[in-house]
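Students often ask why inverse folding is considered easier than folding. One informal answer: many sequences map to the same fold, so there is more than one right answer. In these notes we will look at a single instance of the problem. The structure comes first.
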């Protein structure tokens, strides 16, 4: 038996994640390039997240970004 988790792309948590990433990144004085390097995530993808053009990051990406931003992954999803 498989557990299937459906994520609604219209879920507000995912729409606001980009805003939270940008706010935390700026509060830490990091550029997108610095965050991308530290989180091992492309600059283009971070930019898409921050501008709400991408709104469904994987759990792995959320963890990598949260770690680089010195926060808990759950903080990005609140």
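Output (designed amino acids):
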């Amino acid at each position: 038996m498989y557990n299937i988790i459906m994520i609604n792309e219209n879920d507000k948590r995912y729409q606001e994640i980009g805003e939270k990433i940008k706010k935390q990144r700026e509060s830490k004085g990091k550029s997108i390039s610095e965050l991308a390097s530290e989180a091992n995530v492309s600059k283009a993808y971070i930019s898409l997240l921050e501008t709400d053009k991408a709104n469904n990051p994987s759990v792995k990406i959320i963890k990598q970004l949260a770690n680089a931003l010195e926060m808990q992954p759950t903080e990005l999803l609140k």
